[in-house]
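Help needed: design a sequence for this.
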């Protein structure tokens, strides 16, 4: 703690927009009357972390794990009481990060599953909207199983559009046409009775949360993290 207040360390930059989105949401959700009422965030907004998607899908690329561990150590040394990673795919390296520090590293995916179980107990089949890397490495599967849920991935043509949208957010080149195509394809998963809720398992998709038009519940993992941060520290 610093001056009696908990300090949140943020391993950010994956991507930068998602990190800024987290910070803006934390500020907006904090019951504050003045500057001093807001939450102390130590943010390493590091876009130079090697690509998680490239490392996991293609192999042979630079390893993100050691870079994330170093970021965690610097944040801990600077006074963070716990760490958060506003990137779902980066949680493949969660154990590496946790082993590098003596403070808790929150697990975003586990938190999202607990939220689903408590807030949406009727949900059984969850459409996972995330990078293709998480499917290859079965990142979400143990958590779906623990929660008694079935994770459903989009069909290949829809997943291609999901990835196109994720990359467009990172590049700052999102178009109305791309979002419309994405929403139409994702909605088909519900129309075919494949899912009864969606989980935004990529923080780039969270950046576009107001532009998702699905009629079924859309659980935003980034918002789950924001609410937990505020509840813990405000």
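Sure. Designed sequence:
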């Amino acid at each position: 703690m610093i001056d009696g207040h908990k300090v949140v360390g943020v391993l950010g930059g994956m991507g930068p927009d998602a990190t800024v989105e987290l910070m803006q949401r934390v500020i907006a959700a904090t019951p504050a009357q003045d500057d001093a009422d807001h939450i102390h965030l130590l943010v390493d907004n590091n876009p130079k972390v090697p690509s998680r998607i490239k490392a996991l899908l293609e192999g042979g690329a630079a390893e993100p794990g050691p870079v994330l561990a170093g970021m965690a150590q610097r944040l801990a040394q600077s006074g963070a009481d716990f760490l958060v990673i506003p990137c779902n795919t980066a949680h493949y390296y969660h154990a590496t990060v946790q082993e590098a520090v003596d403070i808790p590293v929150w697990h975003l995916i586990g938190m999202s599953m607990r939220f689903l179980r408590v807030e949406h107990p009727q949900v059984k089949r969850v459409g996972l909207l995330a990078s293709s890397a998480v499917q290859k490495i079965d990142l979400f599967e143990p958590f779906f199983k623990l929660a008694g849920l079935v994770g459903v991935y989009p069909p290949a043509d829809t997943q291609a559009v999901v990835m196109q949208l994720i990359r467009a957010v990172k590049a700052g080149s999102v178009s109305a046409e791309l979002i419309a195509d994405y929403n139409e394809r994702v909605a088909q998963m519900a129309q075919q009775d494949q899912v009864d809720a969606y989980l935004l398992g990529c923080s780039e998709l969270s950046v576009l949360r107001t532009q998702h038009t699905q009629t079924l519940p859309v659980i935003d993992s980034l918002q789950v993290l924001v609410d937990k941060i505020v509840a813990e520290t405000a």
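Residues 156-171 form the longest helix (16 residues).
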